[in-house]
Amino acid sequence: MSVTLPPLREVIARHGLNASKALGQNFLFDAQLLDRIAAIPGDLQGKAVLEIGPGPGGLTRALLKAGARVTAIEMDRRCLPALAELDLAYPGQLRVIEGDAMRIDHDAEMGEPYAVVANLPYNVGTALLVRWLGGATWPPRWTSLTLMFQQEVAQRIVAGPGTGAYGRLAVLAQWRSAARLAMKVHRSAFTPPPKVMSAIVHIEPGTMPDGVAPRTLERVTEAAFGQRRKMLRQSLKGLPGALDALAATGIDSQRRAETLDVADFVAVARALG
Ligand SMILES: C[S@@+](CC[C@H](N)C(=O)[O-])C[C@H]1O[C@@H](n2cnc3c(N)ncnc32)[C@H](O)[C@@H]1O
Predict the structure, then answer these.
(1) Domain Ribosomal RNA adenine methylase transferase N-terminal: where (predicted)?
(2) What ipTM does the predicted assembly reach?
C-alpha cells in the first residue's frame, strides 16, 4: 500500500514533541534507515509486531509499511496524537497502548506469537532484554527481538569468550538464543544525537539445553563474572556446590570466567543441578 505521510520533523513540530531527556528520547527521521531496520526481522507482512517506545512513530511507519500488525507501547502521552495519524493512514494495522512497557504483560497483550522491535533508552532496553531472555518458559512467545542499544552494550550481548565485552549478558543472550549484531547506527542519525554510537542487535530463540535451570545458570555467571579477574576456584567459592560442579565437568579451576564458552557455563549449571 502506498501512503503519503507528512515528514516526521513536521509532525514533531506540529505536536510540540521536543525530545525529553528524562524519557531518553532520540528520534530517527531517515525513512531509508528506518526501512532497513524494519527489514531486519524478515518479512513482516501480516505478522504481529510489538514496538516499544514508538515516540512520534518513525519506526512505526516503516513497520506498518512492511505490512506488520503493530502494537505499540509508549509512555509519553504527548506522542499519542501523532500515532493516531498513523492509525488513520494504515487502518486496522496499529494499536497503541499508553503506558510503561516495564509494567505491561506483553504476552497477554499480544495473545499470539510476535516479533519485538524497539529503539529504547539504554536502561529500559537492557532491563526488558533481561526479562525477555530470562523467562521461565521456553521457547518464549516472542519470535525475535530487534533492539537498538548503545554500541558498547550491543557488543556485550553478542560477545564471544576471551574478550573484555564477554560476560553475564553474553551468556544470557546466547545460551538458548542466537544473537547477532545486525546494524551499526551512527549517532548523527538521531535527533538530538546521543553522545555514543548505537547498534541494533537481532536475537532469535533457540533450543533450551536439557537439565539447566535458568536461575542456576544466572547464579553461576553472576559469581564467575562478579570477580572476573580471579580464577574460578576463587570466584565460585561462595556458591555452594559450584566447585564440585566445575570438577565434574572437567574444567580447570585455575581458569578465569572469560575463558569459558557458553556451553561450559551451561555444563557447570547442569552439574550444579
Ligand atoms: C529513543 S526514543 C525512540 C523513538 C522512536 N521509536 C524512534 O526510533 O525515533 C525512545 C522512546 O521510548 C519511550 N519510552 C521510554 N521509556 C519507556 C517505557 N518504559 N515504556 C514505553 N515507552 C518508553 C520514549 O518516550 C521514546 O518515545
Answers:
(1) 33-207
(2) 0.99
Helix, strand, or coil here: 25? coil
Q: Which residues on adjacent β-strands are paired with residue 51?
A: 72, 117
Ligand 1, residue 53: give the atom nearest the CA.
Answer: 12
Q: What cell numbers appear for 252 in the block? A: 580447570
Angle at alpha carbon of residue 229, lines to 223 and 233, rounded to 5° = 55
Count Cβ atoms below 10 Å from residue 57 Cβ, excluding itself: 30
Q: Which domains does the chain have, with CATH numbers?
A: 8-205 (3.40.50.150), 214-272 (1.10.8.100)
Strand partners, 204: 178
**Residue from 9, 21, 25, 32 to probe ligand 1 pocket by mutation (most atoms less than 8 Å from CB):** 25
| Spatial CB neighbours of 94, under 8 Å, sequence gap ≥ 6 | 60, 64, 70, 72, 83, 86, 87
Tell me how far the alpha carbon of residue 71 is from its chain's centroid. 17
- Express each pLDDT in 94-138 by its tens digit: 999 999 999 999 999 999 999 999 999 888 999 999 999 999 899
Beta bridge mates, 133: none
- What is the reported pTM? 0.96
Ligand 1: distance of its center to the CA of 176 in Å? 28
Other beta carbons within 10 Å of 3: 11
